[in-house]
Amino acid sequence: MFETGKTIMLLIDVQGRLAQLMHEKDELFRSLEIMVQAMKILEIPIIWMEQVPENLGSTTESVSRHLTGMTPIEKFSFSCCNDLGFKEKFDSFGRKQVLLTGIETHICVFQTGRDLIAQGCEVQVVADCVSSRTLENKRIGIERIVQEGGSVTCVEMILFELLKEARGDRFKQIIRLIK
Questions:
Q1: CB 106 within 8 A of CB 15
Q2: 75 assigned to active site
Q3: Distance between CA atoms of 16 and 62, rounded to whole angstroms?
């Protein structure tokens, strides 16, 4: 069971023209907006990654507008785990429960998930917060993460898992987000 004090969210490469080519991009962006806002409410850290931004562009505005005060980490490798800036930031939080979000599911999201699992992390890929250019590639990416030892969740499922109960201010704020 994931817990707020042990969890971290990774936002991987939701950038530029590539993001616009994703399968069901509008639903993806909406789910990511909810997820980012909910992580802030739950005080769960987010690590924001961008793949070669000078080539791919910056993070989609509908998502990045919720990341005020944060700076993306630029990367060149497909797996975030091969990037020193990521490793330093990730290690600084000391958390081992990881929520994977971003694009593309079958490339950067998968490779990052595989590497985190190999390092002993508990990984959940948030199915409605990841995508690829094709639905088939998205499915294969999620399937491979599961084969490596990760699991699958969705926005509402993980938020209620983290909340644990239907009361309090955080619960009310998150209900407003998902309605």
A1: no
A2: yes
A3: 12
**Cβ-based neighbours of 33, under 8 Å, separated by 6 or more:** 62, 63, 66
From 13, 83, 115, 128, active-site residue: 13
Distance CA 127, CA 19 (A): 16
CATH fold label, 4-178:
Rossmann fold (3.40.50)
Q: Give backbone dihedrals phi and psi of 114, rounded to 5 degrees, phi first.
A: -55, -45
Q: Report pTM.
A: 0.95
Sheet holding 151-153, edge to edge: 73-75, 46-51, 7-12, 97-103, 122-131, 151-153
Residue range 105-158, pLDDT digits in tens: 999 999 999 999 999 999 999 999 999 999 999 999 999 999 999 999 999 999
Q: Angle CA(107)–CA(147)–CA(28) in degrees, nearest 5?
A: 45
**pLDDT tens digits for 21-67?**
999 999 999 999 999 999 999 999 999 999 998 888 899 999 999 99
Residue 108: how many CA atoms within 13 Å on its side-chain side? 26
Determine whether 61 is exposed, middle or buried from the number of CB atoms within 10 Å of its CB (0-12, 13-18, 19+).
Answer: exposed
Would you say 53 and 15 are in contact if contact means Cβ atoms under 8 Å apart? Answer: yes
Q: Is 96 known to be catalytic? A: no
Out of 80, 81, 108, 129, which one is annotated catalytic? 108
**Domain range annotation of the chain:** 4-178
